[in-house]
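Q: What would this chain look like folded?
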Amino acid sequence: MKFVSYNIQYGYGQDDRNDLARTVDAIADADVIALQEVERHWDRTGNDDQPALIAAMLPEHYWVYGPAFDMDASFRDHNGKLTNQRRQFGTMVLSRLPIVWSRLHCLPMWRVTNPLNTQNPALEAMIRTPWGPIRIFSLHLSHISVEERLAQIDWLMAREARVPFEGASWCGTDDEPERHWTHAESEPENPVAAILMGDFNSVAQGAEYHRIVGAPQQTYAPGATHYAGRFVDAWVVAGHDPGEGITRDQRIDYCFIEGSLAHRIRRAWIDNDTPASDHHPVWTEIDLDAPALENQQC
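A: My prediction, written as structure tokens:
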């Protein structure tokens, strides 16, 4: 399966053109897509509903949208009739496989007086692959400071440590089935296996990077140690040097994969040819097309 993460900068390209169709063309081949900087109802993009437009251009993908930055954009027409409208900015996940459940996490935010700071999201979506269930994240860390990003990563890693003891979007037995709370769906999985994709606004080998993958190893080469429940840099596991690659001036966009999936990474690459955004798409191919022996019942 092909996974791609892309900060699309609301379709605004390196040539100063807004072209959402060009953006979608760059990632249409992926099975799972994590997008950042997707917006609704901004003047700069013609008041478009970008999640709906992207979904229309990828009709074979299921999708969810997580708007972390939300403000009023309501208006009255010439007759005084109110139209309620939200101006939103956030992340999106699209998948060829059904998205069983999703939830939006608003990451810790520090109030600043200058410059502008905005709420950062981590959109979580669970899909069932032939290998087994996996949680996908599309996230966007703060551009403000290392300290704020570390606080966001610490929050996310602490939450990941609780996953074995938490439910999904719903859990337990529906004791009011006549009210159709779950539409007869049984409790879904909340697997430890997860993939974090997005714009981390931080360089490889920086403090934020090592807060996710762990301290540099003294014994084994980078990417060689795969801890269950911890994350590895798919780019490094695929054979690249941590300092290689450019996603925006440097490599600041990543695909981090939970350790139990690391041996299934087949390749990773960055598409530096598309001018559709100020970032470049980050691709990872992972072998999830067959059930894993560890997922089979004896």
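The helical segments are 20-27, 50-57, 146-162, 207-213, 234-237.
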